[in-house]
Amino acid sequence: MGVAGPPGPVMDRDEADRALGRLGAEHEAIETSLLALQDHAGRRLLEGARLTGATRERWAAAEQAITLLWTYFDAYTGALRSAREVRSRRKWPNREDLTQLTELLRGEAVTVAPGAGDGTGGAQSITGPAKLSEHFTLAGLVERMNELYASSLDMVVAADAVWSALPARIDLLAAELHRTRRLAHSVGVRPGEHPSGDDLERITSALTRLREEVVSDPLTYWQKAPGSSAPGGGRPDTTAYDRQARALEEVRREIEAVLTVRQDAEARLGRLRDVLSRADRTLAEARSARGEVLAKIAASEVPAVSGPPIALQEQLARAADYRRHGQWHRLSPLLESLETKADDELLRARESLTAVTAPLAVRAELRGRLDAYKAKMARLGFAEDPFLVERYDAARRMLWSAPCDLRVAGEAVLRYQRAAAEVLSSGGPERAAPSDRRGES
Fold it and tell me: Fewer Cβ atoms within 10 A, N terminus or C terminus of the chain?
C-alpha cells in the first residue's frame, strides 16, 4: 500500500498543540464517564440479575457496547499517545513532524478490531455485519464512543430507576396487604365467603407476579419521556402498581366498614328494633282510628291499614343471629338494607295514620271554626240573636252526632258563617228583616 498524504492542509505547531489539548481533555472526560459507568450500581445489578424479556436482550447488547467502548477507548488512548510522542520530539516540530501529527490528529489513523476486546475475533458486531477492522479519525472515534456510551447508560439508568422505585413500593404495599388480610380474617372476610376476600387473593397473586416481572425485566416498566434524547430520560411506569394499590384501598375501606359494623352492631340493632316497634304502634293506632272513623264519620272512604312488617322482623332476627355468630361481613349489608326499610316502614305507618284520621281532622277543624265564629259574635253582642242561635244549633247537632256527614256539616257551618256576616253587615238583629233571614234558611 502506498503512503497516503495528510488530510487537508498540514497543521502548524499552534494548531497541533490546541488539538492535542482538546483531545487530551476529551480523553479525561471519556475515561471518567467509562469508570462511572463501570461502577454504576445499576450495571452491577444487571450483571448479577437473572434477566428476562426485553431487558435481557438489551443488556446483552449493552454488554457488547460497553466492551467495545473500552476497546475504542484503548485505541483512542494509543493514538493520542502516539501523537504526543511525535510532538515531544522537539520544541519546534519540522515539516515531517507536522505532517505526521496532521495524519494522526485529523486522518483516519485509528484502526480498531471490534472483536479484539470481547474474544469474538471480529465475528460479531452490534452495529451490523461483522468487520475485521474499522478505521476512525480521533473526532469520529469520540463521536462513536459518545453514541455507545449514551445508549448503554440509558439502558443502565432506566433499569436502575425501575429497581430503585418499584420493588420497595411493592414490598410496602405487600406489607399493607398482609395487615389487611389478617384484619379481614378477624371479621370473617375470607376467600370464597366474601367478595373482598376473593379480591385480596387476586391482589396477592398480582403483586407477587408484578414483583417478579419488575426484578427480572425492569425495562418493561420504564416509560421513556417523549422527545427526550438524554440518557435515562423518562420515569418508571407505575400503572400496574397503582391499579393494585387502588384495589387494595377499596378492599381496606370495605373491611373498615365491616369493623365499624362490629363496633356499633348492638346500637344499630337496638335502633332498628325501636323504629320497627314505633311503626307497629303507629299501625295499631291507625287500625284503632279507622274503626273510630267508620263509627263516627258517615259517607267517607277510609283506607285500609296493613298489618305489621313480618318480613322485616324476620330479617331483624337474622341480623341478630349474624351478630351472635360474628358473621360481620354478612351483617354489614343486611343492617344497611334493614335501616333503609325500617325508616320507610315507619314513614308508611305515619302516612297511613294520617290518611285514616283525615276525616276526624276535618271534623275537628269544622268544630273549631264553628266555635270560633260563635265566640266572635258573642264578643260583638250578638250571642242571643235567634237566627244565629238557630244556625249554630243546626251545625252543632250535625258535627257532634254520630255518624257525622262531613259534607252536610260543612255546609251547615258555612251557612252559620254567612248568617253571621249578614248580621254584622246589617248592624244587628233589630235591623235585619225576619223575612230575609227566613229566606236564607
Answer: N
Summarize pLDDT for 323-344 with one digit per residue, the tens.
877 777 788 888 889 989 999 9
Strands (E) across 55-207 are located at 110-112, 134-136
Cell numbers found for residue 220: 418493561
The 3-class SS string of 195-239 reads: HHHHHHHHHHHHHHHHHHHHHHCHHHHEEECCCCCCCCCEEECCH
Residue of 298, 311, 285, 273 lying closest to 401 (CA atoms): 298
- For residue 154, which amino acid is it? D
Instruction: Give the integer Cα–Cα distance in Å for 426 and 387.
Output: 13
DSSP 311-362: HHHHHHHHHHHHHHTT-HHHHHHHHHHHHHHHHHHHHHHHHHHHHHHHHHHH
| Sequence letter at residue 86 | V
Question: Which DSSP helix (H) or strand (E) runs through 297?
Answer: strand 297-298
* 273's grid cell: 328494633
Which of 214, 166, 177 is closest to 199 using CA atoms? 177
Q: How far is CA 200 from CA 182, 184, 427, in A?
A: 11, 9, 90
- What's the half-sphere exposure (Cβ side, CA atoms, 13 Å) at 233? 9
pLDDT tens per residue, range 184-236: 888 777 888 778 889 999 999 999 999 999 999 999 999 888 866 677 788 99
The amino acid present at 353, given as its one-letter code, is L
Average pLDDT of span 55-67: 92
pLDDT band at 114 (very low <50, low <70, confident <90, very high): low
| Pairing of β 110-112 and β 134-136 | antiparallel
Element (H, E) at 405: strand 404-405
Dihedral angle sign, alpha carbons of residues 118, 123, 129, 133: positive
What are the φ and ψ backbone dihedral angles of 234, each rounded to 5 degrees?
A: 160, -160
Give the chain's length: 441
Q: Can you give the pTM of this predicted structure?
A: 0.57
